[in-house]
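Reading a protein record of the kind used here takes only a little practice. Each token is a code from a learned vocabulary of local backbone shapes. With that in mind, consider the following protein and its fold in token form:
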Amino acid sequence: MYLASNTDIGKIRKENQDRVRVGMIGDNTALAVVCDGMGGALSGGVASEVAIASIYNRIAENYRPDAGANSIRNLMLTAVHGANTLVYEKSKEDIDKNGMGTTCVAALVAGRKCYIVSVGDSRAYLMTENKIEQITTDHTYVQMLYEQGMITKEEIKTHHMKNVITKAVGVEADVEVDYFELEPEGNFTILLCSDGMSNYCTDEIIYDFVFGKNLDNAVADLINYSNEKGGKDNITVALIAN
């Protein structure tokens, strides 16, 4: 198992509210989490910091190598719900933190089995031989419009409300979490990212930079490319490859 990750403030923002954490949590078992905070003052960074620590630690500390798929599913969902409660309660501590929240995407890869949870518009991609696919669905207003047939896929990229997310960790007392299970064949790579990367990098760009390449170089290339194309947001990438 090979891991790589990094985060960058980008070219416009004064603070990096993204957080990323990756590591091995067992024999041939890796965990990666990306959070992209939102909120005024410094509260977005607080939200993503609280969430990523809570989610990563809860999964890492409670994962068991003999756990079945249903146990892992419950562990990952419980971890996100627990983080939601922590962020939500912290948001009520003072008025500056009211309404703060964070996206979250996390992937646990145990051998060939991949377990993914998602809230918001941070994404997970799967790359295999000659193929890349987005696993998660963006929880955004424009995605909702697209699914309702109101706009085209091309219009998503330029819509004036493309940055409005419809779900986030910590904004409300409870949150609905998406869950995915995969068991790809052959060589594969899981990529997690914040929208500061996915807004600039097409599927083709991602695949060309990542699959079969040195992972540290791939992370650097994706961040550099996103900055060269504008860098209007914080940029975060995490990779797990078998």
Observations:
- The mean pLDDT is 93.
- The longest helix spans residues 69-91.
- The two ends are 5 Å apart (CA to CA).
- The chain has seven helices and eleven strands.
